[in-house]
Write a structure and sequence with these properties.
14 helices, 465 residues, binds pyridoxal-5'-phosphate, Aspartate Aminotransferase, domain 2, 11 strands, seven-stranded mixed beta sheet, four-stranded antiparallel beta sheet
């Protein structure tokens, strides 16, 4: 079956054989994954030489190609799904999420206009409403969209806040404003803010990185001072960002104080809960996010702690009309918006868009909210296990988070020492950890981000260290 046409379609039996082949490869991968090196050794040269054979001139056998591509991926990616990947917020993908991806790809709903994919649009609306409900909003009042990730969700937050603060700027541009719009996020925030400010034409210097206290949370008094100074200097503060779960250390900014400050200063408030927003699904952990219900908008990545295959971010807000103002556009060729519906392309950053919410719908419905809560609480408890075991082994935990991101060091270790430790762990293939800096000071970082991680992998990591 090496006819080039197989690339596009095949008859019933051929399809079945191809799906079976794919299933076999995925099964084999998932079975052998725990025994694979977390980080296979590879080089750009090796990969490029292997790829040179593909000049794409003529077609080839799909079975061989599927197997070969799976092998390339097996030997050529960091296995973020490995139970000993204590890494950045990349989870193992939930099985129902993977199936949801396949289902979505096969049906290929086009989510630009509601009328092209009503079922997919309503599935997403339902799931976003559920997430809004966990934040403390009315599900029906929750607006927003699935995004490629947290960076796009945060970009959406900036565009919405700009539109609310400076309605004329959408047409006339920032140059028509009497001053420079500025926004505030903590020095420990995710620095996509710099790219976003660049992309929006604000300029990177418009991001005020507010100092943090010794607990790595935004220093609210420092934010007050910066806002006052900016106003004196003729700048135009418009947005305050609270990070709920910093990327380095899982620290949650003082959301209630920040929401209050934003209200007092007339700024929009955005909560960047890309990773830790997931704890909203747990009744026990939800209080960690107190204050988030008063945010104007929230970023919550499903491809982080909700274990979705990438990419699946969400942007959540109650300001449906603000989104429409920021993103609406009228063209002759798009169908008209139907009453009582929202066309995603006229309310969000993207135009043609994949239905990213189907996989989360399937996983949520299979696991139940309580199933997710059990998992999130279990991983949180494993964070405490890791902190305790590191402490017993003579490591110093820095800036402890209530969440399963663990940063640690030795009293007299230099940045180079810690780099060398992380490097040896990664090269061993037996685990993956990284280094980071907290308020400028180097530390090792290990995050329990995988539903398959148990105390066994934690013990093994501490032994390895
Ligand atoms: C990961 C992360 C982002 C960026 O999200 P992507 O999904 O990588 O685009 C933004 N903010 C925080 C706090 C994050 O942890």
């Amino acid at each position: 079956m090496s006819t080039p046409g197989t690339a596009f379609a095949a008859d019933h039996d051929q399809r079945r054989m191809l799906f079976d082949a794919l299933t076999g490869l995925v099964q084999e991968h998932l079975d052998e994954l725990p025994g694979l090196p977390v980080t296979p050794e590879t080089t750009p040269e090796a990969l490029r030489v292997a790829l040179k054979r593909f000049d794409f001139e003529d077609g080839a056998d799909p079975f061989g190609l599927l197997a070969e591509t799976a092998r390339m991926l097996r030997d050529g990616i960091v296995h973020t799904s490995h139970p000993s990947y204590f890494g950045l917020f990349n989870p193992a993908p939930a099985l129902m999420g993977v199936l949801g991806e396949a289902l979505t790809a096969a049906f290929n709903p086009q989510l630009a206009a509601w009328s092209h994919a009503p079922a997919a649009a309503e599935i997403e609306r339902h799931v976003l409403g559920f997430l809004g409900g966990r934040l403390g909003w009315q599900p029906e009042a929750t607006a927003g969209s699935f995004t490629t990730g947290g960076a796009e969700a945060n970009l959406t937050g900036v565009l919405l806040a700009l539109t609310r603060a400076f309605p004329a700027a959408g047409r006339d541009g920032l140059r028509a404003l009497p001053g420079r719009p500025v926004l505030y996020a903590s020095a420990e925030s995710h620095l996509a803010w710099l790219k976003i400010a660049h992309m929006c034409g604000l300029g990177r210097d418009a991001v005020r990185l507010v100092p943090v206290g010794s607990d790595l949370r935004m220093d609210v008094a420092a934010a007050v001072d910066l806002i006052a100074r900016d106003r004196r200097d003729g700048h135009l503060p418009f947005l305050l960002v609270g990070t709920a779960g910093t990327t380095s250390a899982g620290i949650i900014d003082p959301l209630p104080e920040l929401v209050g400050l934003a209200a007092a200063e007339g700024l929009s408030f955005h909560a960047d809960a890309a990773w830790a927003g997931a704890v909203a699904l747990s009744d026990r952990l939800r209080p960690l996010l107190d204050g988030i219900e008063r945010a104007d908008s929230v970023t919550l990545d499903a491809h982080k702690w909700l274990a979705m295959p990438m990419g699946a971010g969400t942007f959540l807000t109650r300001d449906a009309s603000g989104l429409r103002e920021a993103f609406s556009v009228h063209t002759a060729y798009m169908p008209d918006e139907l009453p009582e519906t929202v066309d995603p392309y006229a309310s969000s950053v993207q135009w043609s868009r994949r239905a990213m919410g189907v996989k989360l719908f399937l996983t949520l419905a299979t696991a139940g909210r309580t199933g997710y809560a059990d998992l999130i609480e279990h991983q949180t408890a494993l964070g405490d296990v890791l902190r305790n075991r590191l402490d017993e082994a003579g490591w110093t935990i820095v800036a402890p988070s209530p969440l399963p991101v663990v940063c640690f060091t030795r009293p007299d270790a230099t940045a180079d020492d810690l780099e060398a430790v992380a490097d040896r762990v990664v090269r061993s293939g037996r685990a993956w950890i990284s280094t980071t800096r907290l308020a400028g000071r180097p530390a090792l970082r290990a995050c329990i981000t995988n539903f398959a991680t148990t105390e066994t992998e934690i013990e093994a990591l501490v032994d390895l260290l």
